[in-house]
Amino acid sequence: MPSKGAEEQRGKGEELRRNNAPLRPRTLAPLLPYLALVLGVTAMGMSGIFVRWANAPGAVTGFYRMLIAIAVFALPVGLRWKRESPLSARHLWFAVLGGIFFAFDLAIWNTSVMMTSAANATLFGNTSVIWVALGALILFKEKLRPIFWGGLILACIGILVVLGQDFLTHPTLGWGDTLAMVAGVWYGFFFLVAERARDKLSSLVAWWVSSAASTVGLFAICLALGYPLLGYPPETYWSILGLAIVVQVISLLSVNYALGHLPASIVAPTSLGQPVVTAILAIPLLGQSLDGLQIVGGLLVMAGIIIVHRSKAR
Questions:
Q1: Which residues of 120-151 are buried (b: 16+ CB within 10 A; e: fewer)?
Q2: Contact at 8 Å (CB) between 297 and 156?
């Protein structure tokens, strides 16, 4: 049996080795989902910036945005489609219908960006959360909690403040804000239908089918309104490429990665910060700013949207 002194000596030796052992570098792995979430929200916030830079009809920028995105994801979606076959025809039609709604959303919202500030267009486009809740109430008889109505009233007050200010300053701004809200309604329709499509389809397949339908719908809108798809300056096409890769592809991959590692209760509310990101980026990139009354109204709208979102949380 080893003596007490030998045990103490061995213990001191082990302690000395531990103290002199090289420090293990800390890994960034736990931070990656949060970094991906920040990247995704920032990428989404660039949407209005790229649309402004493109300076083309809303349906045209929307068409190329969706066309490039579905081309990028064609191979992985094809592989997923093969694994999931046979797919529910009914839910594929839900995805197609959602894509048509999204086509109207993009065409109208992109147009609104050219008529009002990028921050306002993004802010009012995000009122879709409200229209989704009201649509669920009317179409699916979902019950809405009292807190929802409080958030709705607060958001409406903020909308009236911003709209009133913009109509008094310049009527075009007010009409741009109005178009952005109309786009938000269409996005609400898209969300309600797309939610049904995902009952039987994976999120990637449902997204791709909807995006393909949006591409066809936006092409039809361009034809109907006589918008040319060619003949724009090079900066237009570079901006559209940035719109597709950054806003559609990078944001989708980033947010999906974050959802795979973080609870939806963290990811979903963070995406509501998109209008804030756009407002901040529009200052150096577009030379746009908001006055005091618009900031107050925007904060009221954002507060209302967040309250409405929380009222829908399970």
A1: bbbbbbbbbbbbbbbbbeeeeeeebeeebeeb
A2: no
* DSSP line for 134-178: HHHHHHH-----HHHHHHHHHHHHHHHHHHHHHHHH-HHHHHHHH
- Residue 33 in this model has a pLDDT that exceeds 90: no
Length of the chain: 314
Residues 6 or more apart from 238 whose CB is under 8 A from it?
none
Query: What is the identity of the amino acid at 64?
Result: Y
pLDDT tens string 75-134: 989 888 888 888 888 999 999 999 999 999 999 999 999 999 898 899 888 888 888 888
Q: Which tokens go with 262?
A: 């973080």
The pLDDT tens digits for 42-65 are: 999 999 999 999 999 999 999 999
Token duo for residue 275? 């209008």
Which residues, other chains included, contact 275 with Cβ-Cβ below 8 Å and sequence gap of 6+?
45, 119, 122, 123, 126, 298, 302
Query: Which tokens is 264 given?
Result: 């939806």
Using only C-alpha atoms, what is the Rg of the chain?
Answer: 24
- Please tell me the pTM assigned to this model: 0.83
Q: Comparing C-alpha atoms, which of 208, 237, 266, 261 is closest to residue 41? A: 266
What is the greatest pairwise CA distance in the chain? Answer: 96
Chain CA centroid to CA 189, Å: 15
* C-alpha to C-alpha distance for 111 and 226, rounded to whole angstroms: 15
- pLDDT at position 268 is 66
* Distance from C-alpha of 203 to C-alpha of 253, rounded to nearest angstrom: 12
Residue 309 near residue 152, CB atoms below 8 Å: no
Place of tokens 């909308």: 159
The CA distance from 133 to 129, in Å, is 6
CA dist., res. 26 & res. 63, Å (int): 44
Q: Write out pLDDT tens, residues 158-171.
A: 888 888 877 877 77
pLDDT at site 213: 97
